From TrEMBL:
Keywords: Amino-acid transport, ATP-binding, Cell membrane, Membrane, Nucleotide-binding, Translocase, Transport. It comes from Microbacterium salsuginis. The keyword ATP-binding applies. Signal peptide: none annotated. Transmembrane segments: none annotated. The chain holds residues 1 to 237 of 345 of the full protein. This is Methionine ABC transporter ATP-binding protein.
């Protein structure tokens, strides 16, 4: 069974103005991602990539089709089950989305505090995560004291805090310079290979796909226009 499966998924937003047509952000998309895989979604701005991610973590519900995580249709979940689902899915962002008023440790601790874990357990887990991302010495620093690459490593540690099976990456390296991008991609590779976490990464950078992904789907105007092994798709003229 696929870990992530979208079947005939469409998402329409209401017309932006009276008399205008609805915006079809995602149009009849079917996509499955196996456990342990890194799947890339590429396409120009407006292609529907972010909407696909928001459908996978149930921030949006589809207007048609089904979204299943591990065989469970997530469009039918109640609030409590949704919380469980979200702790199974970590997310990282282009602009990192860290809390500026919290320390590095405080940022990583946040999802565990929300989930109500005991203090001592949180401290040990934060420690472990910061060592994993190579920021053990920055626990007491604030985001503004960090470089972009360090901020994204905090973002990754925070996304992993609840031990999710899935990591969603939304243009996670697009704000970084090429060297820092490679460093973050190396860390994401470890997240996949050492922790066995399934990664769905959306990007407009082909290098990200080449370095990280096993499989890639290409989106245009809300539809998947091509998909397959990275080597095959990217070598097609
Ligand atoms: P991408 O991530 O590939 O840039 P998006 O999924 O963000 O694409 O957007 C796909 C289309 O849906 C775009 O035309 C965008 O303007 C539209 N869209 C995205 N989110 C919303 C929203 N909340 N309300 C209305 N239209 C939206
Ligand atoms: P805030 O930024 O919200 O003030 P703190 O820095 O006080 O947050 O820490 C928030 C959480 O992170 C605490 O629950 C604590 O257990 C954990 N924590 C704080 N410092 C460390 C550290 N050096 N190593 C590991 N965990 C830490």
């Amino acid at each position: 069974m696929s870990l992530i499966r979208l079947t005939g998924v469409s998402k329409a937003y209401p017309p932006p103005a009276k008399g205008a047509d609805p915006v079809i952000a995602v149009d009849d998309v079917s996509l499955s991602v196996e456990a342990g895989e890194v799947c890339g979604v590429v396409g120009y701005s407006g292609a529907g990539k972010s909407t696909v991610l928001r459908l996978v973590n149930a921030l949006e519900s589809p207007t048609a089709g089904t979204v299943e995580i591990d065989g469970v249709d997530i469009t039918r979940l109640r609030e409590r089950e949704l919380r469980t689902l979200r702790s199974d899915i970590g997310m990282i962002f282009q602009q990192f989305n860290l809390f500026d008023s919290r320390t590095v440790a405080g940022n990583v601790a946040y999802p565990l505090e929300v989930a109500g874990h005991p203090r001592a357990e949180i401290a040990a887990r934060v420690d472990e995560l910061l060592r994993f991302v190579g920021l053990a010495d920055k626990a007491r620093s604030y985001p503004e004291q960090l470089s972009g690459g360090q901020k994204q490593r905090v973002g990754i540690a925070r996304a992993l805090a609840t031990s999710p099976r899935i990591l969603l990456a939304d243009e996670a390296t697009s704000a970084l310079d090429p060297d820092t991008t490679q460093e973050v991609l190396t860390l994401l590779k470890r997240v996949n290979q050492e922790l066995g976490i399934t990664i769905l990464v959306i990007t407009h950078e082909m290098d990200v796909i080449r370095t990280l992904a096993d499989r890639v789907v290409v989106m245009e105007n809300g539809r998947i226009i091509e998909s397959g092994e990275v080597f095959d798709v990217l070598s097609t003229p």
